[in-house]
Design brief:
heterodimer, A: 167 residues, mainly alpha, elongated, B: mainly alpha, 10 helices, disordered C terminus
Chain lengths: 167, 211
């Protein structure tokens, strides 16, 4: 362990080194600097801004930018469907489709219904709506009834599990 | 033991008188008295110049730096607390300015090879060696972290005690001691060959301010 209070020789050696290489202030330079100090002292003192005077406006500006950067917060209130459709953010800006009062529902048309897998699932109609083929599960109509002894995804259960599952 | 008491009380009385005089000068300087400001900073001009000269490669830059430091001291005079060390207050400003000087000096020395300062009187070998040593010290200082740089300058160039260093860098006296210890160790490692050759401070030299 070294004692932080005892710098010993390194400090002495460094002090000597610093002493030898110090730039001395000549009388001429000193006189010039004194004159300069007198001039500086006569200037009206400019008050330095307090730390709060710097960071408080910066913080307010950052908060304003953060507020304005989110489009939903400052969107106009909804009055009717066509006008809100114009205000609604572009699809690329939204991460997920949300049912919101501000976003007008898309006008219903046949082509969109038939292409939308969610509609197909909810209506429970065709079972070939890949990749969301939830029709059979929603309606309870499967292609094949599950047999006793079948596991998830139609895999056969081991014998011990089959025995356990028997009533 | 009996003789110590009157001596120490005289010292305390002198210190009190200095502090009172300093406080009066500060008040006058704050009111725009140029002569009072000059009187206030005059004892510390050598210190300011030495710190600036350590960090800057040339006398001209050092003098400019001192003038800038004087302006900063004048602007911040309102923050000085009477009763505390004015030397530490001035030195703290000088070493902060030195940081910028060291950085620009390092950039400059990378661009062009270090040459002896033209402003100094030319005496061949010794002066050249001294300039080269100063340049190496500058380079070594430039590689130290900011706080360590500052305490080295405060300790070795300004000759401050630990309490004053603590006030200047805004830490406790104990932390200042540890900081100085690490900084000096780092610097002596970087300047190992110079430190080994350097003669230790003789007993005749003035003693550094004890905290």
């Amino acid at each position: 362990m070294t004692d932080p209070n005892d710098h010993g020789d390194p400090e002495r050696a460094l002090a000597s080194l610093f002493e030898r290489t110090a730039r001395p202030l000549s009388e001429e330079d000193r006189a010039r600097l004194e004159r300069r100090a007198r001039d500086v002292g006569r200037f009206p003192r400019r008050a330095l801004p307090k730390p709060g005077m710097i960071w408080a406006p910066a913080l307010a500006a950052a908060a304003a930018i953060a507020y304005l950067a989110v489009p939903v917060r400052h969107a106009m209130p909804v009055t009717d469907a066509p006008s809100t459709a114009v205000i609604a953010p572009a699809p690329s800006e939204t991460t997920a489709p949300r049912a919101s009062a501000e976003v007008a529902p898309a006008p219903a048309d046949d082509t969109s219904d038939s292409d939308d897998p969610a509609v197909a699932v909810l209506s429970g109609e065709p079972s070939d709506t890949d990749p969301f083929d939830l029709g059979p599960l929603m309606t309870g109509m499967g292609a094949e009834p599950r047999h006793h002894g079948d596991g998830a995804h139609g895999r056969a259960l081991p014998e011990r599990q089959v025995e356990r599952s028997k009533p | 033991m009996v003789r110590l008491f009157p001596v120490s009380s005289r010292l305390v009385a002198n210190a009190d008188a200095d502090a009172t005089r300093e406080a009066q000068l500060v008040r006058k300087a704050l009111d725009g008295d140029g002569a009072a400001f000059a009187t206030l900073v005059e004892p510390h001009l050598g210190l300011l110049y030495r710190i600036a000269g350590r960090a800057a490669g040339s006398a001209v830059i050092a003098e400019d730096a001192v003038q800038e430091a004087l302006e900063i001291v004048h602007r911040r005079l309102g923050r000085y607390e009477p009763g505390t060390s004015f030397k530490a207050f001035v030195a703290a400003i000088a070493v902060k300015r030195a940081r910028t000087l060291l950085r620009s000096e390092l950039r400059r020395s990378r661009r062009e090879s270090a040459t002896p300062d033209d402003a100094r009187p030319a005496t061949p070998a010794e002066l050249f060696a001294a300039e080269e040593t100063a340049s190496r010290i500058r380079a070594a200082l430039g590689t130290l972290p900011e706080k360590r740089q500052r305490v080295v300058l405060l300790r070795l160039d300004a000759g401050l005690g630990y309490a004053e260093i603590a006030a200047a860098v805004g830490t406790t006296e104990g932390s200042a001691r540890v900081l100085v210890h690490h900084a000096l160790r780092d610097l002596s490692e970087k300047l190992e060959d110079l430190v080994e050759r350097a003669p230790a401070r003789s007993s005749g030299e003035p003693e550094r301010t004890k905290p």
